[in-house]
Structure to design on (352 residues):
């Protein structure tokens, strides 16, 4: 095809038609259906996309995509509704009040009739019924799909000494839940003990890499994966797949937990008090990335000797020359954390 293509958003790359002659000079003759110079045949607007509003007459400046603007979100078309880019879809990718029905899975909701599926769970349109504390439809990365919680996770709704099972139910804890201290994998419900902490086994649901015993959460499936062998996926860019106690594991980045004294587990830097860290003077973005837990002006600061050397809200641990870590930082033990009543807890473990 030559000349204007019926395609509302992308100008086609066209070869010149055979024997077309010039089409850009003054008074030139346009090729078959081609854009005209002064005196050539015009490029006419028009397409068959229900979800675009078309201009009439000639293309503005001879640019085909300038003929079209997307219709309003929610305008009806043969397959359902128009979205903001002018495509016809079978549900509305919209959480705004004007989207009063047929919202896609993953969109926000406060009642079932807003969702095309007819199911509103965890304030999210869901693909199926997803009741119970060990299942959720709003987990990061899998919004709109009912996902069970990882084995061994303590959640609100599992009362007393219970945690989530592989069946997505609350069961009595015989072994330690995720995030709790351990000395061997036999101590953990998940059967994985890494960095003296119960972590998730392969193919369990995950959000962060450090939830997994392999330090690898597949960004597509949001499940823990090995970095070699069956079901493996590549390590994050910059990290290598190494052997750690017989398990193929990805290295971790500055500010994340690693076994004390095992520098090879770090993609950069060294291990210091169970965190991979960068030496003094290195470029940094967070306090936990630095050997002395103090990132100032984008660079790791020297050892502290008094509280004024540390950022507001933290103090100097003069025994180590380290600043304590602010709330939200990854940690291994409570002594690393700042605050009046600091706690290193949760999964993954953070200063709270």
């Amino acid at each position: 095809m030559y000349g204007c293509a019926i395609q509302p958003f992308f100008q086609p790359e066209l070869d010149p038609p055979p024997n077309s002659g010039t089409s850009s000079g003054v008074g030139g003759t346009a090729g078959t259906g081609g854009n005209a110079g002064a005196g050539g045949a015009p490029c006419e607007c028009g397409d068959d996309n229900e979800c675009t509003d078309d201009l009439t007459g000639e293309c503005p400046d001879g640019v085909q995509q300038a003929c079209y603007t997307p219709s309003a979100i929610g305008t009806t078309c043969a397959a359902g509704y128009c979205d903001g880019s002018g495509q016809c879809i079978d549900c509305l990718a919209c959480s705004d009040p004007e989207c009063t029905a047929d919202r896609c899975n993953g969109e926000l909701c406060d009642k079932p009739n807003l969702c095309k599926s007819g199911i509103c769970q965890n304030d999210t349109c869901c693909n199926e019924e997803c009741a119970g504390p060990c299942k959720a439809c709003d987990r990061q990365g899998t919004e709109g799909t009912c996902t069970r919680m990882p084995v061994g996770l303590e959640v609100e709704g599992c009362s007393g000494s219970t945690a989530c099972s592989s069946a997505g139910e609350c069961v009595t804890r015989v072994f330690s839940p995720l995030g709790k201290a351990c000395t061997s994998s036999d101590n953990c419900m998940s059967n994985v003990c890494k960095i003296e902490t119960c972590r998730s086994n392969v193919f369990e649901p995950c959000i962060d890499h450090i939830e997994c015993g392999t330090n690898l959460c597949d960004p597509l499936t949001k499940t823990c994966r090995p970095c070699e062998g069956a079901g493996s996926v590549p390590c994050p860019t910059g990290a290598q797949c190494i052997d750690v106690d017989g398990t193929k594991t990805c290295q971790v980045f500055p500010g994340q937990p690693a076994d004390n004294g095992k520098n090879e587990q770090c993609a950069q830097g060294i291990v210091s008090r169970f965190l991979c860290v960068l030496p003094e003077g290195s470029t940094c973005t967070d306090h936990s990335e630095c050997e002395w837990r103090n990132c100032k002006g984008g660079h790791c600061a020297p050892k502290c000797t008094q509280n004024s050397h540390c950022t507001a809200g933290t103090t100097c641990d003069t025994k180590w020359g380290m600043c304590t870590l602010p709330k939200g930082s990854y940690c291994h033990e409570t002594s690393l954390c700042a605050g009046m009543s600091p706690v290193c807890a949760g999964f993954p473990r953070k200063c709270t």
The CA atoms of residues 330 and 350 lie 4 Å apart.
